[in-house]
Structures are given as C-alpha cells and as structure tokens.
C-alpha cells in the first residue's frame, strides 16, 4: 500500500510518537510510506525509518487578524492538497482535530480516502466554536474515525455510523526490560507530560506539598516543557517546595527515569490514552493516575496494577502518594502487575489493527 501520514509536527508529544511509530512499522512491513507535517522538519523529535519519505510543509505562520487568518487557511488548503496529490497516496491517515479538519477540507473532491484520529477526549477538550462546527460538518467525509476508547467511540458515532468508527488504543514502543524493584530510588516521584493545564501538574504540586513527603527526603521530578513552566515554578515557591522540585524539560529517554523512580503519578484533568502512563507501567513503576473519563480507567485496575484517584482531588492524590511512599510491598506488587501492559498493548498487536483498517479503506 501507499500510505501518507499527516500531523502538525513531529515534536515531543504522545500523538507524534505514535504516528512516527506507525509510519516506521508500515515501512518495515514493506508499504510505501510518507509522513507529512504542516510544520517544518526542524521540530522533529522522533527518528523515522530510512524508507519513509519526509515532507515538511512549514505552513504554520501566525495570522494578525481574522481576514489574514481566513486567507492563510485557504493558502494552507491549496498547499496541502497539492502536496498530497503530488505524492498520490492510496490512503491518508491524519492525527489531531485541527489537522484532521484541514486535511479533509483540502482533499474534498479528490477521491483520496482519509482516516482521521482523535488523540484526546473531545468531550473535555474545547477546540473553539468554529473548529467544532467544522469538525461536525467535515468528519462525515472521512472513511474512518479512529478513537482510543469505547467511551469516546460513542461521541464519534454522532458523526459516522458505528461501522466506520474504530477503537484502537496506543501501543507501547520498544523499551528495555524493567529493573528489579529493589533497585529503584526511594526518594524520587516522577511525572511526565507537556506543561499545560490539562496535565494537572498544579494539582500534583499541591498534593506533594500536602503530603509532606519532602520531609522524608523525597523529591518531585516533572519531565516535559510547555507554557506553564513559569507558573508551576511560582506555585512551587508559594508552597515552599521549590527546593524539592526538579523540571529538567524534555528528555530523550524518559524510560530511564521511569526505571529508577519510586513511583509515577499522572494527575491529569482529562486524557486520551496516555503514553507516559503506559510506558511507566511497562517499566515496572507503581503508578497513581487520575480517573479521567477516557484513558487511565481503561489501563489501570485500582489496587491491582496501580491506584486511581478522583480527578482534581488534591487530598486523595496526596493520600495515595503517602500510601505508596510508605508501603514497599504494595509498590512491588503493583509494579509487577503493571508490566502486563507490555502484552496487552504490544506494538505488533496494535499496528496490525491499524494495518488491517487501512487495508479495508484502500480496498473499499
């Protein structure tokens, strides 16, 4: 097959990681593959298979007013349409709502089938009134909508009949084997994600302060970057925990941090299907996750392979952190059970489902 993957950029995000992994897997299977980004190639964080054609359009310039925004969008539509038609794919796979909207609109009338995928819970993530209207109007032109959980599938079936909605969770990328639990650093609590309100790191700072685990020699490490960095640093100062907080930014190998931490925390307000949580569990981390409407509750069985706490409940989060900090047998049991995600969300299984879906679209 000849498949074109499209996403805004290949920056250090979860959706970007999955798309790069899919493109590589399709290429390794012998398909002709290209990966197109609306940004340029200078933002690339993930490596691609040598046979994947890389197309960077670099068309994400800012608009100064509404008229310029409209003009820029039509300019983008023409460039996307020309680039896709030039490569002549049998199927286009697009990730993330705004890019999905642009791709579908750009390819109207071309007869090139499009598969779009929502990578976050659209019931909780507001994209703006005009984009929401555009999504409602344009998504029925897609051949398939791919979501990551059954709960979001119900939302997608408002756009397309159920047979054109597919539920495919994220896969776990190739990771080293986790170390024995006793080799973990008992003093390090880890969180990973973009520094944005959705990820709830402000809640985590408040819970860490309330837990007073810093008085027992523990520190909090948050990997990732984003617009809330300064705000989080100020909040840590106000809470008096700045000496116990580390924010190293984006790191190349977060799994190395996951292999050594005492436990992992995902305090999100809402999610899609969090890669960081999956990878932490695959690395044998005891985990605490907010029980979001989509994502963590499909991955974590409370008390079996991790702990779930109510969303935005700082008191419950602090209590769960204290529990893991002082109960080594529980941590070891949860960490061992967590590793079963390597089987449940194995890369070859999930990629096979994607490959089958694209084949069905091409042959239809």
Features:
364 residues, alpha/beta, 7-stranded parallel β-sheet, 13 strands
What does this structure look like?
The chain is of the alpha/beta class. 41% of the residues lie in helices and 16% in strands. The protein has helices spanning 14-28, 66-87, 97-106, 129-138, 150-156, 201-211, 229-239, 254-258, 275-282, 296-299, 314-326, 328-338, 341-344, 347-363; strands at 2-7, 32-37, 53-56, 91-95, 114-117, 144-147, 165-167, 188-192, 219-223, 245-249, 263-266, 287-290, 307-309. It has a seven-stranded parallel beta sheet, sandwiched between helices. Strand 6, helix 5 and strand 7 form a beta-alpha-beta unit. Helix 2 packs across helix 3, helix 3 (97-106) crosses helix 4 (129-138) and helix 6 (201-211) packs across helix 11 (314-326). It is globular, with a radius of gyration of 21 Å. The model has no long low-confidence stretch (mean pLDDT 94).
List the helices and strands and how they pair.
Elements lengths: L1 E6 L6 H15 L3 E6 L15 E4 L9 H22 L3 E5 L1 H10 L7 E4 L11 H10 L5 E4 L2 H7 L8 E3 L20 E5 L8 H11 L7 E5 L5 H11 L5 E5 L4 H5 L4 E4 L8 H8 L4 E4 L5 H4 L7 E3 L4 H13 L1 H11 L2 H4 L2 H17 L1
Parallel strand pairs: 1-2, 1-4, 2-3, 4-5, 5-6, 6-7, 8-9, 8-11, 9-10, 11-12, 12-13
Helix pairs in contact: 2-3, 3-4, 6-7, 6-11
């Amino acid at each position: 097959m000849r498949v074109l993957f499209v996403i805004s950029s290949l920056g250090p995000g979860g959706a970007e990681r999955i798309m790069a992994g899919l493109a590589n897997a399709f290429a390794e299977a012998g398909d002709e593959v290209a990966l197109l980004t609306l940004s340029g190639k200078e933002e690339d964080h993930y490596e691609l298979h040598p046979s994947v054609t890389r197309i960077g359009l670099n068309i994400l310039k800012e608009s100064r007013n509404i008229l310029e925004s409209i003009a820029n969008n039509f300019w983008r539509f023409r460039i996307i349409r020309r680039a896709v038609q030039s490569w002549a794919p049998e199927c286009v796979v697009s990730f993330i709502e705004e890019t999905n909207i642009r791709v579908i609109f750009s390819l109207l009338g071309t007869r090139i089938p499009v598969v779009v995928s929502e990578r976050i819970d659209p019931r909780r993530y507001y994209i703006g009134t005009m984009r929401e209207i555009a999504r409602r109007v344009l998504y029925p032109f897609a051949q398939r909508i791919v979501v990551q959980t059954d709960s979001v599938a119900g939302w997608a079936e408002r756009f397309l009949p159920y047979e054109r909605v597919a539920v495919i969770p994220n896969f776990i990328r190739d990771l080293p084997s986790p170390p024995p639990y006793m080799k973990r650093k008992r003093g390090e609590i880890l969180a990973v994600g973009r520094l944005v309100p959705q990820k709830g790191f402000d809640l985590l700072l408040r819970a860490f302060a309330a837990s007073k685990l810093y008085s027992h020699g523990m520190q909090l490490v948050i990997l990732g970057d984003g617009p809330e960095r300064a705000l989080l640093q100020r909040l840590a100062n106000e809470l008096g925990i700045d000496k116990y907080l580390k924010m190293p930014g984006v790191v190349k190998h977060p799994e190395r941090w996951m292999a050594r931490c005492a436990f992992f925390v995902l305090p999100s307000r809402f999610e899609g299907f969090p890669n960081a949580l999956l990878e932490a569990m695959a690395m044998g981390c005891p985990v605490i996750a907010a029980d979001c409407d989509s994502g963590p509750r499909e991955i974590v069985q409370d008390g079996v392979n991790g702990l779930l706490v109510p969303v935005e409940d700082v008191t419950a989060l602090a209590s769960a952190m204290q529990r893991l900090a002082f109960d080594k047998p529980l941590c070891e049991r949860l960490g061992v059970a967590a590793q079963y995600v390597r089987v449940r969300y194995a890369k070859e299984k999930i990629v096979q489902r994607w490959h089958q879906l694209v084949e069905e679209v091409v042959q239809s």
